[in-house]
Specification:
Length: 135
């Protein structure tokens, strides 16, 4: 997957996530989560938004600097974070609608989780299985 192709997935995932949240809102399935992860930190302030914006910019830089295996995982993490950031800006919390055990998720949360899993697998494959020491 080329860098250009990976970059195009970023707005596509954001649009899909925002569309599903809008549709879930039409059927009253949405819960606003003002916390961070799993509803923790309900009293979070705007410093979280600033931190996520900074990490998003850093993520965009790394998306272009990393080799292709890492780009997909980073792109998923970045697109999920940016979509949730849009919700925090407009709704003062993240719109969740997919019930998972005792918490609720959305597609952006799933993209972040999948991106994290892919990134961990890639780091394991490159650094552990090839026994390269980059420290």
């Amino acid at each position: 997957m080329s860098r250009f192709t990976t970059t195009w997935w970023l707005p596509i995932i954001i649009i899909i996530d925002q569309t599903t949240k809008w549709l879930a809102g039409r059927f009253d399935l949405v819960r606003i989560n003002s916390g961070v992860a799993f509803g923790l930190g309900q009293m979070a302030d705007s410093s979280i938004i600033m931190a996520v914006m900074f990490l998003g910019l850093v993520g965009l830089v790394f998306l272009y600097r990393f080799k292709r295996p890492y780009q997909l995982g980073l792109m998923l993490i970045l697109s999920g974070g940016m979509s949730n950031l849009i919700d925090r800006y407009y709704f003062s919390g993240v719109r969740d609608f997919l019930p998972m055990m005792w918490w609720h998720n959305n597609l952006a949360d799933l993209a972040i989780f999948c991106g994290l899993v892919l990134s961990v697998i890639q780091v394991y494959r490159v650094y552990v299985l090839t026994k390269k020491n980059y420290v």
